[in-house]
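name: query_chain
kind: protein
chains: 1
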Amino acid sequence: MSETLQTIYQRRAVRKYKPMPVNHELIMQVIDAGRMAPSAMNKQPWSFYVLTEKTDIQAFSKQIARAGVREIIRSGVKKVVKTFLDVLRAPIGFGHISEKDFVFYGAPVVIFITAPKDNEWASLDIGMCCGNMMLAAKSLGLDSCPVGFGKFVDQTKSYPSLRIPPEERVMIALILGYGDDEPEMHERRKGNVFFISPGT
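structure:
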């Protein structure tokens, strides 16, 4: 198996981190890999807002957790029930949530990735960018996890400190660090590949 394929197969979403800082150069290498992702019409819509101070990360985590719960409740009882059932069914459950960091699992680096609000292809572009970054992190000896709850950061009191322009929105947060957990690979779905030969 090639080195690239090994990295793909070894990458995991890690939700427990050692209290070790990540070198600035490594962070920039991960971001540079994200910049190499393809994007619609080569617009490269991404911007990266990086937190590395532990107290800042914990403060954002608590505020985002509250904002996320408010948003889920606002969206209706059915969604609240579904969300908690999904968490209970998920392989991670509630086991990795700590009382000090509800959202970012104690990771030493949090990267909020934004895109222009008026870019209709942003979700695809940011997804590919984030994928590059997670694979780059793994190849550099780091672990990572995409955090969808990160998008609720714009509903926190600390959001202005990120200095994100009003025309941008946070699409996702990505956490990086030296993992303190080795999750097993979950079984992958099969039977979902279809070779099509029109006219035969």
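note: Confidence is low (pLDDT under 50) at residues 87-98.
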